[in-house]
């Protein structure tokens, strides 16, 4: 207990004073109220705030003491006796009471109390409890906490990656600050990232240790440590290597110990992440820009696995794209057609032996039906993809209603011979020509009652016999 101001004549000894204090009993109806900055402070308040002046704020080195005034009110008509003041708590020596009030506050009167925050020898947060013992019938033992923060010149650690600050405690690695190492194959050389430690404080920063922890810490290593001492305004760099020897996502935490006085920054931490994958090729097949799954047995027009209807002996073509979506060379060993009508589906160009990563190859397949109706086959691609060494997909086409029998040249003319509808009726047959199987140009038409073989002569045609011809039928 600290007696800050004698409330009795100085010639009295401490023992009689204490005895006299104990003999004083609270008068009925006496009420005490304490406020700071115009705001009432509750008895037992343990949350210092700048709003009621119980938080003295931050004081920098070289600054003088800070005073805060508090008002003690007697809310009753009977005089209120102040028995004593006391400073208790964690750091009572950092606070003192100056200009204490008179020991008696008249009825409905008030008195001022000044508390001073004295800068301590060392920096940091300081707190204490101010205790007022009075004759109040309620809250006779009035206590409230005060606090102040003394700021001394100190180092201030900042960590950066790729010149972007990495917040202390950062748990979500990102590529922009080098904390996300991305994906690397197990056969690739290690991936190294450089980080910087900057001292934004006013005193030398001392690095006490740098460590990597976590269940995947064996996948990362410190390839170059930072300097131990970093003067104010300077920085040092260090390197961390990621060299995975097993597949999967690998996450670790980096800890940097220093003499930064901040409780959170004293051990600066952030997470790193990387993913290790095996180096292997991967085959992907698309039709009309749509990916086709291995083993797909449901041909569709949308992905070109179902060919449009083609007249007998005419050609319908679809182009598929083989792509190596892996990270090493894909070897195509064989491509073939299987199934009951495989001879009607042919590959017009042989594939390359090898495809580099991201390289593509257009696979052209021609469908030439020899009979009417549904025609089916299976496309089989054999490659070095370890997961899909045999890629099979079902193909389907539809043979047309009549048969293109012959295309012949006679001088400057082209003669097209075709069979007509087997059922009697009135029909019109339009003859079309194409050089690329995409654009078809009508060159003439023929009327028929069906059940006959017709010839169409395209006179003066400059078209090559090697072009593509098609006959379309409509019933009249």
Poorly predicted parts: 1-25
Task: Using the coordinates shown, work out and report the CATH topology of the largest domain.
Answer: Immunoglobulin-like
Category by helix and strand content: mainly beta
Q: Report the major sheet.
A: 7 strands, mixed
Could you tell me the radius of gyration in angstroms?
46 Å
Give the assembly state of these chains: single chain
CATH architectural group of the largest domain: Sandwich
Fraction of residues in helix: under 10%
Mean pLDDT: 87
Compute the number of structural domains. Answer: 4
- CATH superfamily assignment of the largest domain? Immunoglobulins
The backbone outline, from C-alpha atoms, is: elongated
Q: How many helical elements? A: 1
In terms of DSSP E residues, the strand content is over 45%
Name of the CATH class of the largest domain: Mainly Beta
Distance between the termini: 119 Å
Number of strands: 35
Give a verbal description of the structure.
The chain has 476 residues and is an all-beta fold. It has 4 domains: 14-151, Immunoglobulins (Immunoglobulin-like), CATH 2.60.40; 157-276, Immunoglobulins (Immunoglobulin-like, Sandwich), CATH 2.60.40.10; 283-399, Sandwich (Immunoglobulin-like); 411-475. Helix content is 2%, strand content 52%. The protein has 1 helix and 35 strands. The strands form 7 sheets. Strands 23, 25, 27, 29, 30, 31 and 34 form a 7-stranded mixed sheet that branches. Strands 2-1-4-8-6 form a 5-stranded antiparallel sheet, with no helix packed on it. β32 and β33 form a beta hairpin.
């Amino acid at each position: 207990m600290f007696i800050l101001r004698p409330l009795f004549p100085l010639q009295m000894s401490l023992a009689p004073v204490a005895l006299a204090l104990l003999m004083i009993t609270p008068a009925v109806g006496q009420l005490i109220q304490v406020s700071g900055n115009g705001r009432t402070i509750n008895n037992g308040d343990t949350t210092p705030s700048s709003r009621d002046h119980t938080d003295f704020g931050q004081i920098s080195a070289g600054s003088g003491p800070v005073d805060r005034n508090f008002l003690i009110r007697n809310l009753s008509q009977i005089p209120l006796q102040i028995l004593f003041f006391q400073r208790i708590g964690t750091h009572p020596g950092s606070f003192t009471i100056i200009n204490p009030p008179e020991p008696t506050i008249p009825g409905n009167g008030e008195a001022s109390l000044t508390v001073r925050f004295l800068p301590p020898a060392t920096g940091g947060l300081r707190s204490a409890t101010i205790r007022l013992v009075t004759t109040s019938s309620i809250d006779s033992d009035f206590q409230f906490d005060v606090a102040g923060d003394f700021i001394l010149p100190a180092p201030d650690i900042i960590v950066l990656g790729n010149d972007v600050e990495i917040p202390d405690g950062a748990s979500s690695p990102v590529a922009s600050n080098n904390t996300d190492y991305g994906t690397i194959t197990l056969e690739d050389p290690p991936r190294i990232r450089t980080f910087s430690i900057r001292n934004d404080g006013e005193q030398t920063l001392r690095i006490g240790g740098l460590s990597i922890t976590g269940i995947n810490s064996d996948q990362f290593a410190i390839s170059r440590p930072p300097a131990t001492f970093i003067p104010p305004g300077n920085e040092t760099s260090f390197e961390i290597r990621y060299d995975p020897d097993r597949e999967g996502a690998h996450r670790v935490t980096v800890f940097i110990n220093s003499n930064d006085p901040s409780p959170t920054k004293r051990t600066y931490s952030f997470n790193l992440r990387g993913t290790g994958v095996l180096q292997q090729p991967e085959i992907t097949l698309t039709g009309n820009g749509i990916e086709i799954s291995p083993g797909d047995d449901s041909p569709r027009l949308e992905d070109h696995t179902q060919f449009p209807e083609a007249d007998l002996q005419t050609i319908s073509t679809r182009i598929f794209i083989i792509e190596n979506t892996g990270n090493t060379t894909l070897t195509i060993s064989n491509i073939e057609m299987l199934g009951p009508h495989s001879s009607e589906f042919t590959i017009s160009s042989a594939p390359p032996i090898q495809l580099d990563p991201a390289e593509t190859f257009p696979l052209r397949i021609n469908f030439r039906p020899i009979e009417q109706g549904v025609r089916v086959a299976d496309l089989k691609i054999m490659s070095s993809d370890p997961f899909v060494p045999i890629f099979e997909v079902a193909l389907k086409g539809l043979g047309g209603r009549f048969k293109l029998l012959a295309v012949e040249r006679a001088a400057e003319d082209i003669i097209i011979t075709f069979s007509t509808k087997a059922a009697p009726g009135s029909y019109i047959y339009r003859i079309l020509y194409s050089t690329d199987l995409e654009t078809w140009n009508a060159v003439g038409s023929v009327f028929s009652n069906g059940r006959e073989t017709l010839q169409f002569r395209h006179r003066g045609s400059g078209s090559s016999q090697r072009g593509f011809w098609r006959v379309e039928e409509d019933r009249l």
